[in-house]
Amino acid sequence: MADYQYDVLVIGAGPGGYVAAIRAAQLGMKTACVEGRATLGGTCLNVGCIPSKALLHGSELFEEAAHGTLAKFGVKTGPVELDLSVMQGEKDTVVKELTGGIEFLFKKNKVDWKKGYATFKDAHTVEVAGQTVTAKHIVIATGSSVTPLPGVPVDNDAGVIVDSTGALALDRVPNHMVVIGGGVIGLELGSVWRRLGAKVTVVEFLDQLLPGMDGEVRKEAAKIFKKQGMDLMLSTKVTGASVDGGKATLTVEPAAGGEASTIEADCVLVAIGRRPNVDGLGLDKIGLALNARGQIETDHDFRTAVDGVWAIGDVIPGPMLAHKAEDEGIAVAENIAGLTGIVNHDVIPGVVYTTPEFAGVGLTEEAAKARGAIKVGKFPMMANSRAKANREPEGFVKVIADAATDRVLGVWAIASVAGTMIAQAAQAMEFGATSEDIAYTCHAHPTHSEAIKEAAMGVQGKPIHM
């Protein structure tokens, strides 16, 4: 057997990579992790999930204080002002704390951090910053990056046409922000800047927002964001952009074709999706081909077609979500160690962290109907006592169950804390729960989660509070 420097080498220290490295080390394997950023945590912790949530929370507090619900509850304030630099500073502090925490965990678990970017020399050898590193097993966990839009060049430094990274670091509130893409990232960041005072226009190629979510949720999302003041240009495509004097001019036309028009904006956010980070890895040197979408194919154990090379996270098929990558990181390490690591890709929750939040797990109603007969229970948040007390009436919970077996196939929720509520549904589905199981589980009162219980009762046609 060849003598390798490491048992496991993980390429990438994002949510999938750092978790895989820590778990491999916990299982007794000598482990290293390659990361070229100055800090660990990948896109998620540095310029994605975490900083965006800090800005979302900060902007929500500002809106509540400036012209939200505080006065309704008897909390009187004087003139409310925004100090954007302080808000951005708090975001940066959160990022520093969490990325530093991962570095601490690497040291605690004796994971070596190889600083730089890896290129394969063969299936067990990579080069990192001029250093050759060998390992018996190599895990590709390089994540994803922003998908560019032809004709719309991003320049984050200039701050006029930006991607998600640039939109997190703006030093002023735009008068008018145009968001290209009505998906999760565009709506979350667009909602931040709308709350802070920008006029926001969302341009989406499809006829509804939030591709991939339940159809009823998508329709409700459009109503909610319009009510909040966002302008929605659905079924519209952007064909070009120019920048002059700190302003951007976009050329748009109907997605089906038609007469072109222009939109002027102080800031344009390009948020049309993400693509796997595979460039520069030297996959051709190990004979590893990509699929038509530029992804690395694996088996259910996360093995690639090359012996000793594994892959997880955004570089393989499936939703590009941090928690999906984390679960795969644990599973791949356990599989390498000879254990049984499994990820149930049918039960991966997705959340949009706007106000309210949108969340779902499992099949949409449309997908479930395509498979066979179903039963659906739906309960409005306006009938939920906690939501009503908090003056959070928007949204609903929908439970979709198989008509014959009553097994829950999908759960969808719009509520102020839908992202937290959906965990219950995911756990129930992981254990193969029926709607009756949820309906007969005692829920604390008054809580938002009672809406899940009531929706499950609705599958049987017997909700109490509606």
UniProtKB/TrEMBL annotation:
Under the GO molecular function aspect, what terms does this record hold? Answer: dihydrolipoyl dehydrogenase (NADH) activity
Domain FAD/NAD(P)-binding residue range list: 6-329
Q: How is the cofactor bound?
A: Binds 1 FAD per subunit.
The record lists the catalysed reaction(s) as: N(6)-[(R)-dihydrolipoyl]-L-lysyl-[protein] + NAD(+) = N(6)-[(R)-lipoyl]-L-lysyl-[protein] + NADH + H(+)
Task: Domain (Pyridine nucleotide-disulphide oxidoreductase dimerisation): give its ranges.
Answer: 348-456
This protein's record includes keyword Protein biosynthesis? no
Q: Does the keyword Ion transport apply?
A: no
Give the Enzyme Commission number. Answer: 1.8.1.4
- Spell out the InterPro entries in the cross-references: Class-I_Pyr_Nuc-Dis_Oxidored, FAD/NAD-bd_sf, FAD/NAD-binding_dom, FAD/NAD-linked_Rdtase_dimer_sf, Lipoamide_DH, Pyr_nuc-diS_OxRdtase, Pyr_nucl-diS_OxRdtase_dimer, Pyr_OxRdtase_I_AS
Co-factor requirement:
FAD
This protein's source sits in the domain of life called Bacteria
Keywords, in A-Z order: Disulfide bond, FAD, Flavoprotein, NAD, Oxidoreductase, Redox-active center
General remark: The active site is a redox-active disulfide bond.
State the family named in the UniProt similarity comment for this chain: Belongs to the class-I pyridine nucleotide-disulfide oxidoreductase family.
Q: What is this protein called?
A: Dihydrolipoyl dehydrogenase
